[in-house]
Amino acid sequence: MKWEEYAENYRRIAKLQEKSDEYCIYQLEYAHQLFIKNLPIIYSPEHFFLLVGYMKEYVMAAANGSEFFYRTFYIDKKNGKKRRIDEPLPSLKEIQHWILHEILDYVPVSSYAKAFVKGSSVRDNARFHRRQKKVLTMDIENFFPSIEIGRVLHLFRKLGYRESVAVLLSNLCCFKGYLPQGAPTSPTLANLIAGKLDEQIINYIAMGKSKIRYTRYADDLTFSGDFNEGDLIKNVQRIANRQGFRIKEEKTRVRRRNQRQEVTGIVVNEKMQVSRELRRQIRSDLYYIQKYGLDSHIEYKKVEKEKYLQHLQGLIAYSIFINPKDEKMKEYMIIIKNIKKY
After folding, report:
1. Of 184, 100, 314, 135, which Cα lies nearest the Cα of 125?
2. N or C of the chain: less Cβ packing under 10 Å?
3. pTM for the full model?
């Protein structure tokens, strides 16, 4: 629908409701800013309730009492620690999916963001840093929780939504005043808000003489090229702090050509492949399966047969995805498929 057609329909309906010309001008000026961005026009919280198909009482309760609309649990991390997950209840999650697919999916994301972006993967992120003299990796501490509701509100305002609507959208996307890890809207919101961080980092890089490559995979920042790592680390920390983020100093690493250079778990020195540890794990599991038999190995590992085979096949498939020319992994895949037949 063209804007002229939309505006004409709006004026016709407003006239039937005996709205003034001044009212129509005010509303259409607001609507036009959203229309040209291909964003849904939401005139008020009441209008939003109709769009998502939920009663006012439920939406307002979820917006104003988020602690009652989430379940919290913990999952194991590779380092032995626990990762907290705050998952919204089904109805709130459905509303968040509407916000994600009807609003956030239409907002351009920084070209340096490689996670939570359609058509981009961890492989694409790593490939950008192959065969470089140095690789510097840095992590943002508590990425989602560090993004507080005020920054989310600012984003919705910037998109063009009026205060009452922006406040409602922000409350529906936040848990206890911050972005929850577990809500479908959080990854895209974090990407959009961190876009300013990407912009400031690129501006800093452009001012220097060194040619530095930069990407961000969620909370993982990667730099590669030939540079003074001390200066780069110091200035990225300064930029991150200014943008409301904190860098984990203990996870900041520099790797040179004569060392194993990894980007989000992928080795990038020459050809891309999964880490030596993962390859060793896969090779070891298949060795014991072939030597002692699957059932004996399953009993030793104390795992369920189907889940174990699916997990092992998934690791092999991931390895081939990272390096499609990995002949050894292709051999392993054939072995696994033959095992699953019996």
Report:
1. 135
2. C
3. 0.90
Amino acid present at 258: N
Contacts of 96 (CB under 8 A, 6+ apart): 88, 172, 173, 183, 184, 185
The 3-state DSSP class for residue 140 equals strand
Beta bridge partners of 340: none
* DSSP helix/strand/coil, 164: helix
Instruction: Pull the structure tokens for residue 91.
Output: 């109805």
Closest CA to 144 of 175, 98, 112: 175
Q: What's the sign of the alpha-carbon dihedral 295, 299, 305, 310?
A: negative
- Assign 148 to helix, strand or coil: strand
For the chain, how long is the longest CA-to-CA vector?
84
Is residue 290 scored above 70 in pLDDT? yes
Segments of the chain assigned E as strands: 70-76, 82-88, 134-139, 212-217, 220-225, 253-256, 262-263, 266-267, 273-274
